[in-house]
Amino acid sequence: MPSALLRILSPLSTPTLVAKAAEIDLGLAEHMPFPFLALVGQTEMRIALLLAVINPNVGGVLLIGPRGTGKTTAVRSLSDLLPEVEVSACEEGCLPEDYERGGEGAVCPSCAAKLKHGEPITRWTAVRMIELPLNARLEDVVGGINERVALQQQRVRLERGILARADQNILYVDEVNLLDDAIVDAILDAAAAGSYTVRRGPMVGTYRSRFVLIGSMNPEEGNLRPQLMDRFGLRVVVRGLMTREERLEIYRRVSAYRANPRAFLRQWAAATAEARAEIEQARALLKEVTLSEQALDLGLELVRVLDIDSHRAEFTLFEAARAHAAADGRLQADVRDVQAVAALALRQRRSEFMVRYSQQQQAEDEEIRRQAQAILQARQDGRRK
Ligand SMILES: [Zn+2]
Fold first, then answer.
1. How far is the CA of 93 from the centre of ligand 1 (A)?
2. Model pTM?
3. C-beta of residue 331 within 8 angstroms of C-beta of residue 285
4. Cα–Cα distance between 205 and 157 in angstroms, integer?
């Protein structure tokens, strides 16, 4: 009997697609998300999300597909599978590391007092999914001067933004293709670096931003610029196609969930707990997972024959392959792992423009070499006469 995690990662598991009907917003999603393990089908989407959770270095996941294909449901359901993390217990987001770095002035008065008395200013909590509102401004995202504190307490304090609040959590950016480029850039920078710095006049704040980034977009509503697209690690093309049996199974599960969410969650609780433990094991194992020579060779050769310029291609490919091996409890990622994640990591990376551009350039370079040789030849012939 394979483990719960392996059953999810096996393409042969539940030969069905994701619960489309679960897209219905019950207003319960934040507290009682549909269980990840109860999702039907959409194997590729589930694999990509799990790989990103096991290894945040894959660089996030972009879900590409039309509305109503269960993208949001799947992302929300992930929070069930994540371990607890330590977060700030304070509204201003003070952390012990702020205090260590900047002393009393770097935290709010209440947290400074607590720290003096040896009281904790953090608490352990389940990972949350932070959803970026579509109308978010750059200040909301990266943070700015806290005007309330400035007015009430006559002190200037930088307010951490959504990116800092997403630290240790999942940041879900729905309709990422409709966001302002500057905002998408800030998000991708922070996700890649794991921290970011805000400057407001003389004030500087550096915040941690270690989150699993998940974006979604409906290509019918506009494309993501290639530069931004390139910075997402894994890309899943989500389709809403499903068979009669799959639709029936989705209908049954979603009906049961809607009728009594608590009872439905209880049915899936044991399997969910098992998968969560396995994800933790995989995360712990990941540090030791290496790639075989053949796996490296396959990956690099693939990138070459596919004419992909971006070095992020092989980076994501290899990190995803390592996560895939870790999920399988192996210390070495081999060609099977590379094959399993290749489409996720490499699709939509080749730039037709750059391929054409480079071919034209090669033709011109060839022409220059040919002309130079012809001139030299003519001069030589002239001297011989
Ligand atoms: Zn505080």
1. 6
2. 0.78
3. yes
4. 9
312 labelled catalytic: yes
Quote the ligand 1 centre to 124 CA distance (angstroms).
Answer: 16
The token pair that represents 274 in the structure block: 């098992």
CATH entry, 4-83+127-285, from 3.40.50.300, 3.30.70.270, 3.40.228.10, 3.40.309.10: 3.40.50.300
Distance (Å) from CA 1 to ligand 1 centroid: 49
Q: Out of 7, 312, 336, 347, which one is annotated catalytic?
A: 312
What is the distance in A from the centroid of ligand 1 to the CA of 201?
22
Token pair recorded at residue 46 = 């589930």
CA 44 to centroid of chain Cα atoms:
14
Q: How far is the CA of 258 from the centre of ligand 1 (A)?
A: 39
Ligand 1 centroid to Cα of residue 111, in Å, is 4
The 10s digit of each residue's pLDDT in 85-115 is 777 888 777 888 888 888 888 888 889 899 8
Q: Where in the chain is the domain with CATH 1.10.8.80?
A: 290-346
**Is residue 191 within 8 Å of residue 210, measured between CB atoms?**
no
pLDDT at 1: 40
Encode pLDDT of 338-349 as tens digits: 999 999 999 988
Domain with CATH 3.40.50.300 in the chain: 4-83+127-285
Residues of the chain with pLDDT under 70: 1-31, 146-157, 241
Distance from the first to the final alpha carbon of the chain: 87
Rounded to a whole number of angstroms, the CA Rg of the chain reads 25
Q: Find, among 76, 108, 105, the residue nearest to 94 by Cα.
A: 108
- The CATH fold of domain 290-346: Helicase, Ruva Protein; domain 3 (1.10.8)
Query: Nearest-CA neighbor of 203 among 142, 262, 253, 263?
Result: 142
Which DSSP helix (H) or strand (E) runs through 346? helix 335-346
Amino acid (1-letter code) at residue 190: A
